Amino acid sequence: MEINIRKDKVQQSEFEQKLQQSIDAKPTQTEAETTIPVVEEKVNIDVQTVETGKVRVSKQVHEEDVTVDVPFVYEDVDVQRVAKNLSVEKPPEVRYEGDTMIIPVIKEEVVIQKRLVLVEELHITKRRVEEHHPQQVILKKEEIKIDRTENNNTL
User: Fold this and answer.
1) Under 8 Å between Cβ of 140 and 73
2) Which pLDDT value is given to residue 37?
3) Residues near 87 by beta carbon (within 8 Å), at least 6 away in sequence
4) pLDDT tens for each residue of 69-128
5) How far is CA 150 from CA 56, 121, 146, 147, in A?
6) Reduced to 3 states, what is the DSSP secondary structure of residue 79?
7) How many whole angstroms separate alpha carbon 45 and alpha carbon 27?
8) Helix (H) or strand (E) holding 143
9) What is the pLDDT of residue 48?
10) Are 79 and 122 a contacting pair, CB within 8 Å?
11) Tens digits of per-residue pLDDT, 25-73?
């Protein structure tokens, strides 16, 4: 297979045309100087925005009932009364035995002599109590859906 292209039928760029003109120009013998044309090509670039498809974004919120175990922490106090009925010279001070605080309770008795009698002690123990109370709560969850439509008119 052979392809014949006639040179006069091929479209030339501006650069090629100017180059051909400079080659075809015959310098005269009488001229002292020879003129050489200088040719430069420039390019123009243009960008077009082409729609290639479409995107649709939608959001749905789903609600769900769940049971959540919520711990409640509080302190409970246990008070025990311990009878003593002891005579003391001065009021005893509050003291601790481990987690138990002991508070002396005194009273004055009128006798021929006045004296302090330790009537009882309060033994107070703190303990940490944790109870679980199931609670109904509504949790929300968002779901994103993206639909893309392709445009077949691309370049």
Assistant:
1) no
2) 76
3) 115, 116, 117, 118
4) 989 888 888 999 999 988 888 999 999 999 899 999 999 887 677 778 899 998 888 888
5) 12, 87, 13, 10
6) strand
7) 38
8) strand 114-150
9) 87
10) yes
11) 665 555 566 777 777 778 888 888 888 888 888 999 899 999 989 898 8
Spatial neighbors of 75 by CB under 8 A, at least 6 apart, are 126, 127, 128, 129
Both tokens of 58, joined, read: 């939608």
Q: Please spell the DSSP secondary structure of 17-68, one letter per residue.
A: HHHHHHHHPPPPTT-SS-------------------EEEEEEEEEEEEEEEE
Q: Which of 128, 138, 133 is nearest to 71 (CA)?
A: 133
Q: Which of 58, 51, 50 is nearest to 149 (CA)?
A: 51
Q: Is 95 helix (H, G, I), strand (E, B) or coil?
A: strand
Structure tokens at 119: 């009537």
Q: Are 70 and 131 in contact (CB under 8 A)?
A: no
Of 85, 136, 78, the residue nearest 106 (C-alpha): 85
Q: What is the rounded distance in angstroms from the CA atom of residue 54 to the CA atom of residue 149?
A: 5
pTM for this model (two decimals): 0.34
